[in-house]
Amino acid sequence: MPSQAVSAVVIHKAHDVRCEPYVMQWNEDEEVLLKVERGGICGSDIHYYLHGRAGMSVLKTPMILGHELIGVIEQAPQHSGLYPGQRVAVNPSRACNVCALCLAGKQNLCRSMRFMGSAQFHPHVNGGFAQYIALNPQQCVPCQSDADSKKLVFAEPLAVCIHAIRQAGDLVGKRVLVTGAGPIGCLAIAAALASGAADVFATDISERCRSLALQMGATSASDPRDEEQFQRWSENGGYFDVCFEASGAVAAVTSVVNFTRPGGTIVQLGMGSASVDYPIGSLLVKEITLKGSFRFTEEFTTAVKWLEQQRIDPSPLLSAEVHMEDVTRAFEMASDKERYAKIQILF
Question: pTM, whole model, 2 decimals?
């Protein structure tokens, strides 16, 4: 089995991320060797950097971060249909494909999912923030040779949002609210509009995020502390057909029930860490449908196509590009939500 020394971005503990040597091995008969071009720092990467954990996944040993990736194939098995020099977007999901959930087409819910850059299991699953990585060929989604790599890196977070759109059902002609205008919220705005929503409104406490929401196509962007506005949205049983809650903030999670019309739908995208005193009564009497939305399945390939076709333009969300040798600065920038949206690392 061949091995190769590479540089990788490794998290050791909270506030301790390093660009350091790593010896990778790959099975050349079964795996693709990919030269990584660039990767986007995700919210979960930031949580590992700030807290040494992401939700219930706690860092126990050093781990390579990263799961938003684009690269060029260096070597591929003959049976894969892939070839050297081919640019691909990386699907970070590695489901078992044998459990009942996988066989039902719900690979995103697989309890044995090995998701790149995750400390859910031990040993941890290394991510892709490295000069070279080894992949199952099924994780490689070919891209057009002339497609913009800066945009293609957004395939993974966009896939999350397209899956949320599917959870909501038909959006054609609907009035939509997105609470939380970070990268996921902003991509949800664009995906909702691309799926036929008539109007998409956004909320965020950050003026910078509200500005980004407008650049991504939002009809308007409001500060959630604007009580007059929210009173109007609550009148007559609720203003919106569909609400995507993308912040995870307790106040937002509980407020969207009031903003959703009777018979409407709420899709929970934001993963908060606090318990919520939820308005069950309002949910019940208005017969609101509440759905969770977690990762994605075949929506990853759809996301790549939408980006190639420029159906979605994520350019406003890219705040900076940083070389991997300066990784600590990259994570400090990505953690500063008042100044930056998405940071991409160059390999």
Answer: 0.96
